[in-house]
Each structure stands twice: as C-alpha cells, then as structure tokens.
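Tutorial sheet, problem 5. The two components below are modelled jointly, 553 residues in total.
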Amino acid sequence: MITAGIDCGAKNTKTIIMKDGEIIGKGQVLTGIDQKKAVEDCLAKAVEFAGILRDDIERICATGSGKKAVEMADDAIDDIKAMSKGANFFFPNARTVADVGAEEARAAKIDQKGNPVDFAINEKCAAGAGVFIEAMARALDVTIEEMGPLCLQSDKKIPMNAQCAIFAESEVVGLIHAKTDKKDISKAIHDSMASRTVSMIRRIGINRDVVMIGGLGYNPGFIAAMLRELKIEKIYVPDAPEFGAAVGAAVVAAENT
Amino acid sequence: MAQEKKREFWRWPETNWKNTNINWQDAQFITVGIDVGSISSQAVIMADGRIFAYGNMRTGYDSPNSARDALKFALEATDLPEERMDYCIGTGYGRVNVPMADRALTEIACLARGANFIYGPEVRTVLDVGGQDIKAIQCDESGKVTNFLMNDKCAAGTGRGMEVFADLLGLSINEVGDKSFAYQGEEPEAVSNICVVYAKSEATNLMRNGRPPEAVLAAYCKAMAERIYALVERVEVKPEFAVTGGVAKNRGVMDRLMPMIGLERMKTDWDTQIVGAVGAALIGYALCQKGKGRKK
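Model answer (structure tokens):
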C-alpha cells in the first residue's frame, strides 16, 4: 500500500511517500506565496523520486499551517499529531518529541502508539526558534552551517542576558567589541536558545526517549546544548529531521486506509 | 584601502544644552542624575532643582564609560567643574555601573519624579517607551509611584524595534514617524505586534509585493501602537497622561496610539529622553536639602 504525507509549512513544503511502512520517496520545495502550486510541485517531486505514478498513491494526509491548500488530501491532521506519529515511526520508544523549526517550536508527550498526550507550542517569539541562531550568525558574520561546529569548539560558559532575538543581537555585538572569541559567543547563543527550548519542553515533562525533529536537528551545537540543558545522554534525531511531520502524516494516511 | 562605512539609519542626533539664565556659582546644591539606558544615556545637571544643563547620547558597549561620556558631554556645554557636584544618582538599565554616583535608584521612581517636574504635578499616568522597555507608571501629585507595569525581555513595541525597521527600510529614524503618514493609498494591516523578527519577515513580504516603504512603516507604527496599548490597557489610565522616552518623539506611533487610549497626551518642549535623569537629579537635590547629601 502506498500513501503520502504532505507538510505544507510556513517556509517549506515537504512530501513523504511510503510503501508498506517504508519511505520510498521525498520532496521539498519553498512554499512561497502560492501554497497550492507548492503542494503540486512538491508531490510531483516526491512521486518522481519514488519512481511511481501519482495514481499509485492510495491515500494522502496533509499537515502544517497550509494544510488547507492540500486539496487532494483525504485526511488532514494538526502539527502535533504529525510530529508525534513521525517520531514514533523512527523511534518507537520515543516519549518526548521536540520539533524545532525556523520560526516555531513545539514539544509533545506521546504514548507508545505515537499519539500525543500533551503538548506545548512557541509560535510567538523568535527567541526559541531557528531564526534566533540565523540572526546571531549574521551578527557574528559566519554562515548558519558554521554556527554549530563553532560552538562545539568552546568550553566556556558566558551567560546571555537578552532573551529577545533583537536584544541578543546587540549583546552579541557587545561581546564582539569586548574581543570575545567567536566560538565562545556561538556557545553562549546555543546555550541560551537551548535553555528556552527546554523550558518549553519542561511544561509537558521530560520522558525518555527524547526525539528531536525539525531543521535544528542538523545543528550539532544545538543538540549538544540541549543535552547539557536536559541533563540526559542522548537525543534521537532521524536522518532528514525536517521531514518528521510529513512522515507522520504518511503514517496516519496508512492507518486510515 | 578605505572602507566605506555603512550608513546607520537608526542613528539619532546626540545633543547637549545649557540654560544660559542660570549661574551655577549662585547655587547652593549642584545635583546630577545619570540615566544609563540600553540605547541612550543622559546626564542632567541641576542647580538648586532647576535644569542647568544636560547631555543626551548613545549608550556604548561599556556602561561606566557611557555614564562618564554623558556627564562629560553635559559639562562641555558649561564651565562647571565636575568637582563642584554635590550629589549624583545613577538610574536606568546600567545604574549599578555609574562610577561617580553616590547611589542608584530604579528608573521607575526617577521617571515618575521627573515627569512630575517636566509635565507638572497633574500627571497621574506616565508611559515611558524607551529602547528596551515599555513602562506604564501611575503616580501621585508629589511624583511618587503608586503602581507600575513593564514589558519583559521583548523588543516588540520598543525603540530598538523601530531602529531595526529604520535600517531595514533605509530611512532615518528621525523621519520614520512623519513618513508613515506620507502614504496616500490604502494602508496595509498592522504587521505582527508579537515579535520584531516576525514583523521584519512580514515587512519584507509586503515590500516583495510592491508596497512602498511608507506603507510598510505605517503597518509597523500601527503594530507598535497596538503592542504599547496592550500594556497600557492593563493599568488604569488616569489623566493627565504623559509620555516619556525616545519613542515619544515618533508621531507615527504616538498619533496612532493616543486614539486607542482615548486621551490627549501632555505637551512639553523638553527632550522626552531626559526625564529619568531629571528625576534622579531632583531626588538628589531633595536629599541634599534634608542634609542627607554626600558626607564631605
């Protein structure tokens, strides 16, 4: 049986195609202004990747802030359910899932079937999302990809006072003026963001295994900071973590068939 | 090779001023208030409770130096030697880092006292919109704080947020208020009033869709007004109502905010950024009068 999960997000649209519990295709496009077109293009990309025909897909499930734009969908689920099911697919022992993306962060407590029991969301403040690190990378004049590895080189602990991304930028400039090493500033930035993400996760409780999906899963500096802050030894991150919600949607489509 | 300096649109003019009608030699007490804020620092010199001179400048990356610079800047306008100072109070975000201060006081107390002096004893509600904070303060006829609320840890609605927008749009911070009324067509909806970072990405989208900078400014001024109103609404607004801080100079925000509150704001010819430092200098003067000044 072949199903598809389409996650139409604020920035990117992601599609996963699954056959009998295995991922056989994926596609990602920028959402842009025309969501419907992004969804069509993204699905076409994933279908091509999987080497199947569009009509081979039995059921489609949509999620993400633009899920209403997925007109061909048979089901639609919210982000929390999608991320929970996605985490459960990769790591059946997952009990706490964090999804940290560019502009939003979410955390869910899930049961052994991957159903969410409780959740917390931050969609109001950039300080707890990927754009925070992006803005700080600009202030430090390094690329976003360099930020994580840079932070791993530091063993210093510099507290950041500012919570807000705008104020933190001024603080980073202040640290640069005080001739603080870039790697130490990068660590301070990651520590500060991890502490905010963890305080969100704490609202629903921290239960092992802890799984992280979303684009920040690519940032080794952030994962290391999260481990320190959570005081645990391991955070499970799937390959291509930004597809976590799309995977969850494809799983739900299969369950509903 | 000479490097071209990036134009800094957020940069506002630094000013110092001296009251030529006052001769400091006649004064019994010279008191100073230094307000080291997140963005601007002011030093106000008072001669027996009258404003003699002040300096208003950008805060640097080092609070003690910013305090010294602001005082130096105020003194530059006069022939007063620094040693003549009888008492000095530090206030603002960097108040614990004012090296020459005899004591430090919160900006809440100083703003209420300063507004009472600048605007008059009828002031009951003071709204301060500065670089990093928004504060709504209630006070009595003597300038004592009876209640206050402030924002926390977020740039939305603050002067720093407006600086970010001035830079984004490439317009001087001094003209953004007027420019926000220059757009003739239908104004876009307010951008996010929750987070400056999100507001910036919404503004970028508006520009991509062909909206001129004036329209984007209108949308941001509206968002700022909404954000400030959300805080003001939580305290009981009693007239008279006065606004202090740098954003009080921005008509784009103020003219959109006041109809929401439903009151007129009091008028002044003084620089609205010096109010906290004025309050600090006045409290210092009151201490000197009571004989609680510096032990010599």
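Marking note: The first strand of chain A starts at residue 2 and ends at 8. Full credit if you identified this.
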